[in-house]
Every structure is written in structure tokens, then in C-alpha cells.
Amino acid sequence: MPTYADIPGQRAFGRSADAQPDRVTMRLLVIEDDRDAADYLVKAFKEVGHVADAAMDGEDGLAMALDGQYDVLIVDRMLPKRDGLSVIGTLRAKGIETPALILSALGQVDDRVKGLRAGGDDYLPKPYSFSELLARVEVLSRRRGSRHEETLLRVGDLALDRLSHQVRSGEEEISLQPREFRLLEYLMKHAGQVVTRTMLLENVWDYHFDPQTNVIDVHISRLRSKIDKGFSQPLLHTIRGAGYMVRDGAR
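and the corresponding C-alpha cells:
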């Protein structure tokens, strides 16, 4: 298992994920039956500003990978119920092309070749450094993004660059805090659709419960003051009883 010191720019956990403004947020799935290792990776990824879920066996991992919208999968090779190569092979057979990085204590050339031929996109033998794992995951996410996702989101005259973390309204640059950026990014990815509070809690704050706070209201208010203030036609709308929506108001 990697050490805390492997996490870029810090010696221990406790630093807010908002302290990493230069990274594009990834949604990751860690499929690892060692609970300590899985918890470590989930926490480490969150510390550098990403969203991470964990599955403890191959069956649960497969179900989550089929249902969830993940940027990269981190898959242990030796798993209960269904091994990692079987998970990846099943995903590929079903047309799911989410990049998968295989973690394994089996690090010989033949093992790596078998993993890549089974549909894995990268293979990292154990023990490993978290900083190397993070770099490899970021590379896989960028490759996928270049093929499947827009890096520049636009709604009306509002533009959000997911790579440079810049937001502009026409020629005017808008300064956002990291959490505000993630909130706007999620809303713009779902432009024209109602985004519920539950969706925001899960995908922007990584809460899988209601914290009973006004955190969403506060951030929506701050975001609205930055992207809509001074314009006659707002982009960010509250849909009473349902949630929020970003849509072009032809302002």
C-alpha cells in the first residue's frame, strides 16, 4: 500500500479537496477487496479533488461500473465472486469502454500482457506509489475525454473550459472557487435538464445522504451572483419542487 507522503503536495490527510483548483474533477470507481486499501485510495483521491466510490468484490464492482458514470476504473485483479479480468472483459463485451487500470501483485510480463489483452488500459503492479497511480489515472481520463467528452462547455454566452478551469461570459472572465466550478460544470453538462438536489449532493459534494444543511442553497446563490448578475436573462434557474437548471435564456 502507498504511504500518505505519496499524495502530491501534502504529508497527511485533512486538506480540503477545494485546495486543488488546477485539476479536472474525475469520478472514479475503486474495485478492491482489501477494505483498508480501498478506503485509503478513496480518501486519497478525494484529498486531491476527485470523487471516488469503492466496491469490495467483482460482482458489486461490475454492477456499479455498468450503472455508474465513471471516468476511470481502478480494478484489483484478484477479487472475490468475480476476478478483475472477468469484470473488465464483461464490461467490454457489453460495450462499456470506461478506461480500466489494473492493480495486481502479479507483475510479471505475462501477467501484464494478459491483463491488457483482457481489456485493461493500463497495468500497475503492487506495491505502487500513489503519485504514479494518480498520474496514470489522469492520463487515462484525458484520453477518454479527448474521445468522448467535450472539454469546452457552452450555454448561451457562458463558456466553461474543463481543462484550464476558466469560465467566461462573452469576453469577461468569471472567477469561481473550486466547488463553484464543479457545481457549474455539472449543471452545464446537464444543460436544459432538471438537476435535483440529490444529484448535486452525490456528484458535486460526494454525499450519499442528506447532510441537512443549506450548503447547496449557499453555493447556488454565490454562483448565480457571478454568472447572472447584471444580465436581464438569467441562465441559472430554480425549478420549484424539483431542483435547478441551466438553460440559454437568449440574454
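(Above: one complete record from the training split.) Residues 1-22 have pLDDT under 50 and may be disordered.
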